[in-house]
Amino acid sequence: MDTALTRLVGVRHPIVQTGMGWVAGPRLVAATANAGALGILASATMTVDRLREAVREVRSRTDAPFGVNLRADAADAGDRVRVMIEEGVRVASFALAPSPVLIAELKEAGVLVIPSIGARRHAEKVAAWGADAVIVQGGEGGGHTGEVATTVLLPQVVDAVRIPVVAAGGFFDGRGLVAALAYGAAGVAMGTRFLLTSDSTVPDGVKARYLAASVKDVTVTRAVDGLPHRMLRTDLVDALEEAGRARALLHAVRRAAGFRRLSGLTWRRMVRDGLALKHGKELSWSQVLLAANTPMLLRSAMVDGRTDLGVMAAGQVAGVIDDLPSCAELVERIMKEAEGVRERLTASR
Hints:
Blueprint lengths: L3 H6 L5 E3 L8 H9 L3 E5 L5 H14 L4 E5 L6 H10 L4 E4 L5 H9 L3 E6 L2 H10 L4 E4 L5 E2 L5 H11 L4 E4 L5 H10 L3 E4 L1 H4 L8 H9 L5 E4 L7 E4 L2 H8 L2 H19 L3 H10 L8 H18 L24 H21 L2
Parallel strand pairs: 1-2, 1-9, 2-3, 3-4, 4-5, 5-6, 6-8, 8-9
Antiparallel strand pairs: 7-11, 10-11
Helix pairs in contact: 2-3, 3-4, 6-7, 8-15, 12-14, 13-14
């Protein structure tokens, strides 16, 4: 299926696997790339040295194009960009808008810049700065998300910019791909659907929790870090939402102490990182601590399998997914479904 995305990136299929922290590692990214889609490596939870190792590991597993996701506001963003350039990474993906200077540096080195955005004005801004494409995530998407549904946000962005637009939030099959193309998108990006594959390194017990979830079990909460965060509803989420400010602070301090030992961060660094994540929002001290520890809360579930101690970011599609195909099986199935839908639409004219 030839689209502006496949031509731009050089992949066979207009499908992107998003850069999920602790989930989108070398194995999943390589499996996605070998299936003909664009895999994106999540680097925010890696050191710079580990990022280089991970990029080389992906390269050892596939010859296909892939990308790396990084935080534009990270103190070492420049070092990470240099690693990507030196290692010949095809795509730079950003969760926050990269600066014009960063975009220019990447583009000069031949790296494609594809930021993820959640509002039309953000798409217009990065397009004006030189971004090659954008991933547009509607409110159905997992992790930090907005309030506008994909079906409303996507056509707004498609009409506003003249670069390829990739739709994210609520996609999991071939019908969704065709719907996104009908809106004017050049492809779809999926996180939860790729998390729930046999190539994902997420523990089996955690995958089982996702598969057992209904649509109503996926919620948006501000209790974790003060920002809208879509995830599976768990006892931890309930406890954070029900706790008063003093109790929440005590709860956060206890968890932060454990995560501090795990991560090696000092209290000063944790508070500084938490404050940096505020992005102008009014956060309580408990939320500041939890904001600094959000990556570790995710790690507890996604790496250690401790669903009682961690959080599980999830798109609403978690409630309609019931199997664990390989990436190759998933991509092939989506493309077959998409072709079938297009054939039926053509035949009905």
